[in-house]
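Late entry, written up from scratch paper. The run itself happened at the end of the previous shift, but nothing got recorded in the book at the time, so transcribing now.
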Amino acid sequence: MTLDKSAIWQRNKVTLHGNGPQILVLGHGFGCDQQIWLPMIASLGPDFTVVTFDHVGCGRSDLSAFTEEDYATLHGYKRDLIEILETLEGEDITLVGHSVSGLISMLVAIERPDLMSSLVAIGPSPRYIDDPPHYNGGFEEEDIEQLLAMMQRNHFEWAGYLAPIVMKNTHRPELAERLRDSFANANPAISRKFAESTFYCDHRRDLAKVPVPVGLMYCEEDVIVPVEVIDFMADAIPHCDKILLDANGHYPHMSHPEQVASEIKQWLRTKL
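Output as recorded:
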């Protein structure tokens, strides 16, 4: 079947930045859209063509493409990303995924390793809910239920409550405000479904199947993804390098864009 590049790019609002020989495809996390990457893109320099996109239901994507059936799990978002990669012309493609997009990128790598050479995952998690006694995901199921209930009750209250907690960097309140706006601007019904797909997922067994090199970036203080989760992933993924960032919070690409860009470039040089 021939892919309709125009339709796919319109569905996910695919955007190109620069024209360097190496392609970076940046995937945003839950509650955000591709605009979240703008502070970092300028720091990536002339060596890259940077591709950004919006997951269906987010940002300027085609909201009419969203159905609860197609996106009930992360596999719907995985299928979309595979189609985006299939439309790109380039042999050296690296996926860079923040949070749940880091995990989605790993699912893509398992199914279609031919579409990429490596991937960078920033603060990902294969499962957010604790599974005692051997796995600390950071949340109890009751925590997730309360989060979803708050989203259902008052989307804007939820955005204002969560943004400063996950952003950290209290000395820079403008960062939490930007994140709050991103959360608040999302479609409430679709955002809640994306939250369910994200926070109820369990892909721990898939980690051992990831065939490409993975740069696992993380912060020591991250209320969404504890360091124990990063250690678990690093032990499970066959070809994995842990990269500790000198930053706090779940959004280092917003708070420290130059550092994250530099670490990506440095890690990719080690893969040449």
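Residues 18 and 203 are 34 Å apart (CA to CA).
(Scratch paper discarded after transcription.)
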